[in-house]
Amino acid sequence: MPNQSFFYCLLFFVIACGKSTSQNKLKFISKTIIEVPEPSGLTYHDGSLFVVSDEVPYLYRLSLNGRLEQKYHTKVKDMEGVVYDKSTESFILLSELKRSITYYSLDKGVGKIHKIKGKQHSKNKGLEGICYHSKKQSLYVVNEARPKQLLKISRKGKIKKKYDLKFAKDISGMVYDAKLDVFWVLSDESQALYKVNSKGKKLQKIPLEIKKPEGVCIDRNRRLYIVSDLTSELFIYQLE
């Protein structure tokens, strides 16, 4: 049998490893001006970036370098988030003003619209980001402030679970990272990117030198993209 000191050392090592969390880094690649007024939401799909604006009712398709390829009129006002839904082959557009999700097909246009219940003390402190959790096969949205919350919702907008977020001044965007099984959450006022678990607990904070970051996504090559609502710039990083 191994001696007692070896056993306790091994036990300590196992416990320490179980409690540790790896820290990720962002390597800056480039930034560019994009032809999108007040970009507020961002997603990656089929080799392109898709961006929405809280200023105009358009969905913009960009190259991975930020070049405008096409834009689509959605009729949806005050969009703050966008994600692609494979099951319906359409984009889900998140409206802060209407507190709703709208299904939008590039071929068929506007589809079903669903309201999301919950507290929203003003039109400027409501829903700010949406993403799809591939492992849980669920949609998640974030509420900007008062309250700052992570909400798990159904495809019809019904709230299934709520988690309070206590790590930033406000929340302005989010994306799910399937490789790490975490969310990457933006804060406009805190000018930071946070790594967050599925229950809303902060795992890491990465400060950003970006004014009003409001949309974030990740592509297949682990490149992370952020858009600035204030400067209409696209920032590209390598996630390490």
Helix content: under 10%
Give the overall form.
Answer: globular
Radius of gyration, whole Å: 19 Å
Structural class: mainly beta
Number of strands: 20
For the largest beta sheet, what order do the strands appear in spatially?
A: 1-20-19-18
What does this structure look like?
- The protein is mainly β.
- It has 1 helix and 20 strands.
- The strands form 5 sheets. The protein has a 4-stranded antiparallel sheet, with no helix packed on it.
- The termini are far apart.
- Mean pLDDT is 91; it is low at 5-20.
At a glance:
By secondary structure, the protein is mainly beta. The chain contains one helix and 20 strands.
Based on the model shown, name its key terms.
240 residues; mainly beta; four-stranded antiparallel beta sheet; 1 helix; 20 strands; 7% helix
Layout: helices, strands, pairs:
Elements: H1 4-19, E1 26-33, E2 39-45, E3 48-53, E4 58-62, E5 68-73, E6 79-85, E7 90-95, E8 100-105, E9 109-115, E10 127-133, E11 138-143, E12 149-153, E13 159-164, E14 173-177, E15 182-187, E16 192-196, E17 202-207, E18 213-218, E19 223-228, E20 233-239
